[in-house]
Design brief:
This protein has about 170 residues and is mostly helical. It has one domain. It is about 45% helix and about 10% strand. The chain has seven helices and five strands. Strands 3-5-4 form a three-stranded mixed β-sheet. Strand 1 and strand 2 form a beta hairpin. The chain starts with 11 loop residues before the first strand and ends in a 6-residue tail after the last helix. The model has no long low-confidence stretch (mean pLDDT about 85). The protein binds zinc ion (ZN).
């Protein structure tokens, strides 16, 4: 019921003893996050970001961990699960991976981490996390991340509040 409300509405609810509560929306992260013992090394399903304990333990520092989480969060923000619902064509999956890498740069920077940690992560993981033709090769990912770091730097040099062009046209994540 609450999810369907206008985010600007401030509904009042009444509890069993007749007390009234006014609810106001506050901005927050729409994704939950969990570290798990098994399953895929890192995954996002639209609402939840999961990372395995094994992957978390293999991370060099907080910034690299932020890179992994930012990549998975980006999949949720960019609604990739919905966009892949019609079929996981190799080209489309690759495109969503590169998009997630690109948006992760902005997420990391805004969270106070050095986005170059994403490059470090990929350089330290010569084997792809998912060995699959649908996932872009490491070199391609690193090149996309480097290009996005440069684009972000240029955009923010003129406007410190510049937002990633990738999400400009997207409806908000509910
Ligand atoms: Zn991914």
């Amino acid at each position: 019921m609450l999810a369907r409300l206008d985010p600007n509405a401030t509904p009042t609810i009444t509890d069993g003893s007749g007390r009234h509560y006014r609810l106001a929306a506050a901005p927050g992260c729409a994704s939950s996050f969990r570290i798990e013992r098994g399953g895929p090394q890192a995954a996002a399903n639209g609402q939840l970001v999961r990372v395995t304990l094994r992957l978390a333990s293999s991370i060099a520092d907080d910034a690299e961990f932020a890179a992994v989480v930012a990549h998975e969060l980006a999949h949720n923000i960019l609604r990739h699960r919905e966009r892949l619902a019609g079929g996981r064509a190799v080209g489309l999956v690759r495109a969503t991976e590169i998009e997630a890498d690109r948006l992760s740069v902005w997420l990391m920077a805004d969270a106070g981490y050095d986005p170059r940690a994403a490059i470090r992560f990929w350089e330290r993981h010569p084997k792809p996390l998912i060995r699959d033709a649908s996932h872009p090769p490491r070199r391609e990912r690193i090149a996309a991340i480097e290009a996005e770091i440069e684009a972000m730097g240029a955009a923010r040099a003129t406007d410190p509040r510049a937002r990633p062009s990738l999400i400009a046209a997207l409806p908000p994540l509910e």
